[in-house]
Amino acid sequence: MNKVVLLGRLTAKPELRYTQQNTAFTRFTVAVNRNFTNTDGKRDADFINVVAWRKQAETISRYFDKGNLIAIEGRLQTGSYDDRDGNKRYTVEVALDNFEFVESKAARVASASSTEPQMGNYETTPYDYQDNTPHQNEIDVENDPFAEFGDSVSIDDNFLE
After folding, report:
1. Can you tell me the distance from the alpha carbon of 144 to that of 28, in angstroms, rounded to the nearest whole number?
2. Most CB atoms closer than 10 Å: which of 75, 79, 84, 160?
3. Residue 4: enclosing H or E segment and its boundaries?
4. Is 121 within 8 Å of 141 (Cβ atoms)?
C-alpha cells in the first residue's frame, strides 16, 4: 500500500504548467509541522514536494497561494535524473490523488497576504474535486471546538497510547 496524507501550508504560489502534450500540471511544496518541538521549544517542519495533474492542477494553481492551508491525499513516487555534471540524482514526491480546502476563502486570502499565516475558519462545504460535488459531512463552523485555540491545531494520535 502506498498512501500519503498531508496537512500543511504552501511555501509558494503553485504555477500552472503544461507538458508537450498540453496536459496541465503543477509542482509545489507543502510545509508540514512535526508533532514535537526541537531543543529551542519550536516546531520544525518538513518540506514535501507534491505534483498535481489536469483539473486538480488547474484548481490548485487558481485558488491557492503561498501560506494557504491544504489537505492532500496521494502516493509517494520516486524518480531519477542525471544532473549537468553527469551525477545521478534521485527524487521523491507525492503524486496528488485528492485535496481539500481546509480554510475559508477569507482565511486563505488573509494567510496569503500575511507574512505569518494563521489558521482560519474551516470551509462550511468541502468539495470533492474529482466530480465537484459537496461532501455529505459538512463541518459545523458555529461549534468549532478549536475556534479559540490560537494559531494552529496539531492533531496527534499519540495521546491515545
Report:
1. 30
2. 75
3. strand 4-10
4. yes
The contacts of residue 1 (CB under 8 Å, 6+ apart) are none
The more confident residue out of 153 and 39 is 39
When computed from its CA atoms, the radius of gyration of the chain, rounded to whole angstroms, is 17
Cα 47 from Cα 130, distance rounded (Å): 26
CATH architecture for the domain at 4-152? Beta Barrel (2.40)
Does 118 have pLDDT greater than 70? no
Q: Quick check: 33 and 72 in contact, CB under 8 A?
A: no
pLDDT tens digits along 13-54: 999 999 999 999 999 999 999 988 888 888 899 999 999 999
DSSP state of 146: T
Give pTM, 2 decimals: 0.64
How many beta carbons lie within 10 A of that of residue 30, not counting itself?
22
**What does the pLDDT read at residue 122?**
34
Give 29-88 as a 3 state SS string. Answer: EEEEEEEEECCCCCEEEEEEEEEEEHHHHHHHHHHCCCCCEEEEEEEEEEEEEECCCCCE
Q: What are phi and psi of 10, to 5 degrees?
A: -70, 140
Q: Give the residue extent of every domain in the chain.
A: 4-152
